[in-house]
Automatic annotation (TrEMBL), chain A:
Residues 45-57 have a biased composition (Basic and acidic residues). PROSITE patterns: PB1. Homodimers and heterodimers. Belongs to the Aux/IAA family. It comes from Fraxinus pennsylvanica. This is Auxin-responsive protein. InterPro entries: AUX/IAA_dom, AUX_IAA, PB1-like.
Automatic annotation (TrEMBL), chain B:
It is found in: Nucleus. It comes from Fraxinus pennsylvanica. This is F-box domain-containing protein. Residues 76-117 form the F-box domain. GO terms for molecular function: auxin binding. InterPro entries: COI1_F-box, F-box_dom, Leu-rich_rpt, Leu-rich_rpt_Cys-con_subtyp, LRR_dom_sf, Transp_inhibit. The lineage of its organism: Eukaryota, Viridiplantae, Streptophyta, Embryophyta, Tracheophyta. It holds the Pfam family Transp_inhibit. Keywords: Auxin signaling pathway, Developmental protein, Nucleus, Ubl conjugation pathway. One of its GO terms (cellular component) is nucleus. Its main location: nucleus.
């Protein structure tokens, strides 16, 4: 990965990172504030001309928007307090996944999934099993497996009850339960 | 025969203040009209029917001498004038009074105790003290506002040291110092603590350069300290137990806020301090103060009015937690609540008992409180006037605010996830809901994913009373989410409807048209922040020409250039400051401006590592900051600042 600029704070985890994301979605880090501002003046000028550019349609470069110096205009004190671990944001949120009866555990990065569907699909792929559909009333009916997770308080919870954002910040590890234990 | 004159004072909104005198005599109780032509600040006449009159004195005069205004003044002994001026607390009123005539200038300057300096480089400390020798309270602001967003280098300036040194030399009896965006060193704090025996109040907002050692000096030497209020400062922790340096004899604290400190404090010292300061009304602790310590503190200070919690993490099934609930219930005076940096959601019910009385709630530093918990909390807060939250509250949560908080005047919604655009959870819907449900709303700061003209037009109709309106779309040039049009019409509606608007920040896709609206309708506007907006010089010109009361204008990344900058150079002497960065202004134009206007400092901030040998006048200027000043170019400018 020679082409990537190395930043003083960068742990160079990029070189060894196992990612499941699409190729070419590396976030450009820019060291020179001036350059970033100029780049984005150009960007915004382009945007002005594009009246059909939708606000949500920035898949191609979501990271560059967040790299504008001083935008959104939030005091650095507040930025550091509300989001203290920027490096965590870059290196991923890996949690252990255990499955009842399996000889060893796996690890997945929760950050790369957009929601429960993607996560469950990935688990199904990884462990070669079917988990099925979630319902609030019956959990994961129709399958002998149930995905559960351990939260911040140490309790074992069923995956899917809480909003996704809350889930990824409180989930400490995953456990795929099986058999009679799995059905409540 | 002699006549008695009663002197009244009343403040009229648009014309400053007025004195109303009524002639009373033993025989004629009705007033008579006297006109004073040249001075709109003073009137004489029978205005007793106005409700806000204060009687401030009576004087006996000879009737025929009342005709002349000048002789009126002779009958007002200085003590009367001073007494009159005591009613004038706003610095603007006092400034107006000083302009009336020489004797009023003299009386006012000796009687002014509170001085406000909006730009510390507009005047020098020595001149300030020469004019106001009896100053007891000084407020200073340093760096320009955009310094908050990393657009100004840390060592640009704004040092408080020369001010403290001058006040020491001038024998000022300083009691209160309030600083914003200034560089404060430990040396300054030590000098402050050791030089002013009556020092009572230190308020530091967004300052930096000091450590907990400086705080230790304040704690140990300011014997009558009432207020130590640290808001959002970058303070280096020296692990020196600064809080333990408050002597046992210190019982005068009324307000203590150290929420922004990152280090530990000695909990036993804190508890003892709180116990002996029975006048303590406001206490905001940092995250290093755990919940059980908070409980012990609250047990000693049930009289608190303003509370900022530290870490609110605990096992809700424990004994400590029950004790906390009990202590909280006894705190019936708390009307302002903040903190919750670390929080266990299941501990929140402990505060439900105080929610009913809350007028201010700041949960904008509590990312651990999710939407559901937030909503449950807010349902108890029906007296809320000021609410600060993160956008995790969502549009739905804002809907709950709209239906619960009918007294709401100010709302701030901050972004919770700054680095990833697309996950934010408030939109124009939340804003519209608030505007519909909260008729008293007059101040808003709103970070949102998207906005529409229709929403802004509705908000403008629902809330014509905005004084502050600051909208920030996370993508700075996003158009109307539905029509894809610029947001000109929406913001235009806001300025047209909100005739009292004083502060405005805009974002989203905006053309010159929106500035036309600002110039035409925003007649009371004092501060305007623009980013990534406009098409040409015309935009900036509309604003400069139309916004007569403009004091601060800050612009970044917008295509405004020399024509706009130089069109009305005199305008800048009526303003406090102008900031322009990443615009189209050239060095040559800035030089012209600096040359023609000696009462302005035009500073160019150039941070690039390579210093150009030949500096080309046609080159665009990266960052320019200009401000009016009475004392010429400053002598403490660092290398990268060039005053033209």
């Amino acid at each position: 990965m020679e082409g990537i600029m190395s930043h003083e704070n960068d742990l160079n985890l990029k070189a060894t990172e196992l990612r499941l994301g699409l190729p070419g979605t590396d976030e450009p880090t820019s060291k020179n504030n001036k350059r970033a501002a100029n780049e984005l003046v150009e960007d915004s000028e382009l945007l002005k001309g594009k009246s059909d550019a939708k606000a949500g349609d920035i898949e191609t470069a979501p990271a560059s928007k967040s790299q504008i110096v001083g935008w959104p205009p939030v005091r650095s004190y507040r930025k550091n307090v509300v989001q203290p671990k920027k490096t965590e944001a870059e290196t991923g949120n890996y949690v252990k996944v255990s499955m009842d009866g399996a000889p060893y555990l796996r690890k997945i990065d929760l950050k790369i999934y957009k929601g429960y569907q993607e996560l469950l699909k990935a688990l199904e792929n990884m462990f070669k099993l079917t988990i099925g559909e979630y319902s609030e009333r019956e959990g994961y009916k129709g399958s002998e497996y149930a995905p559960a997770y351990e939260d911040k308080d140490g309790d074992l919870m069923l995956v899917g009850d809480v909003p996704w954002d809350m889930f990824i910040s409180t989930c400490k590890r995953l456990r795929i339960m099986r058999g009679s234990e799995a059905t409540a | 025969m002699d006549t008695y004159i009663n002197i009244y004072i009343e403040r009229e909104r648009d014309r400053g203040f007025g004195f109303f005198l009524t002639e009373l005599s033993d025989y004629n109780r009705s007033g008579s009209n006297l006109k004073v032509e040249d001075n709109p600040e003073l009137y004489f006449g029978p205005k007793i029917f106005r409700s806000s009159l204060h009687l401030i004195g009576s004087a006996r005069v000879k009737k025929d001498q009342m005709r002349s205004f000048q002789s009126m003044l002779n009958y007002f002994p200085e003590e009367v004038l001073e007494h009159v001026f005591d009613f004038l607390t706003s610095h603007r009123d006092r400034n107006a009074v000083s302009l009336v005539c020489k004797s009023w200038y003299a009386v006012e300057r000796f009687s002014r105790e509170k001085v406000f300096i909006g730009n510390c480089y507009a005047i020098s400390p020595d001149r300030l003290i020469a004019r106001f020798p009896r100053v007891r309270s000084l407020t200073l602001k340093g760096k320009p506002h955009f310094a908050d967003f990393n657009l100004v280098p840390h060592d640009w300036g704004g040092y408080v040291q020369p001010w403290i040194e001058s006040m020491v030399k001038g024998g000022v009896n300083l009691e209160e110092l309030r600083l914003k965006r200034m560089l404060v060193s430990d040396e300054s704090l030590e000098l402050l603590a050791n030089s002013f025996p009556n020092f009572k109040s230190l308020v530091l907002v967004s300052c930096e350069g000091f450590t907990t050692d400086g705080l230790a000096a304040i704690a140990s030497n300011c014997r009558f300290l009432r207020e130590l209020d640290l808001q959002e400062n970058e303070v280096e922790d020296r692990r020196g137990q600064w809080l333990s340096r408050f002597p046992d004899s210190c019982t005068s604290l009324v307000s203590l806020n150290f929420a922004c400190l990152k280090g530990e404090v000695n909990l036993a010292s804190l508890e003892r301090l709180v116990a002996r300061c029975c006048n303590l009304r406001s206490l905001r602790v940092n995250h290093a103060v755990p919940l059980d310590a908070l409980q012990r503190i609250l047990a000693q200070a049930p009289q608190l009015v303003d509370l900022g919690t530290g870490s609110f993490v605990h096992d809700p099934d424990s004994e400590s937690y029950n004790k906390l609930e009990t202590s909280m219930q006894k705190c019936t005076s708390i009307t302002s609540l903040s903190g919750f940096l670390d929080v266990t959601a299941r501990c929140l019910p402990a505060i439900y008992s105080i929610c009913r009385h809350l007028t201010t709630l700041n949960l904008s530093y509590a990312p651990g409180i999710y939407s559901d918990e937030l909503v449950k909390l807010i349902c108890h807060c029906n007296k809320l006037e000021r609410l600060l939250v993160l956008d995790t509250i969502g549009d739905k949560g804002l809907g709950v605010v709209a239906s619960t908080c009918k007294e709401l005047q100010e709302l701030r919604v901050f972004p919770s996830d700054i680095y990833v655009v697309g996950n934010a959870s408030v939109t124009e819907e939340g804003l519209v809901a608030i505007s519909a449900g909260c008729p008293k709303l007059n101040s808003i700061l709103y970070f949102c994913q998207q906005m529409t003209n229709a929403a802004l037009i509705t908000v403008a109709k629902n809330c014509p009373n905005f004084i502050r309106f600051r909208l920030c779309t996370l993508n700075p040039t996003v158009p109307d989410a539905v029509t894809m049009q610029p947001l000109d019409e929406g913001f235009g509606a806001i300025v047209k409807s909100c005739k009292g608007l004083k502060r405005l920040s805009v974002s989203g896709l905006l053309t010159d048209q929106v500035f036309l609206y600002f110039g035409r309708y925003a007649k009371q506007l004092e501060m305007l922040s623009i980013a990534f907006a406009g098409d040409s010089d015309k935009g900036m010109l509309y604003v400069l020409n139309g916004c007569k009361k403009l004091k601060k204008l800050e612009i970044r990344d917008s295509p405004f250039g020399n024509v706009a900058l130089l069109a009305d150079m005199g305008k800048y002497e009526t303003m406090r400051s102008l900031w322009m960065s990443s615009c189209e202004v050239t060095l040559g134009a800035c030089k012209t401006l600096a040359q023609k206007m000696p009462k302005l400092n035009v500073e160019i901030i150039n941070e690039s590592d390579q210093m150009e040998d030949s500096v080309d006048d046609k080159q665009k200027v990266e960052k320019m900051y200009l401000y009016r000043t009475l004392v010429g170019p400053r002598k403490d400018a660092p290398d990268f600042v060039w005053t033209l």
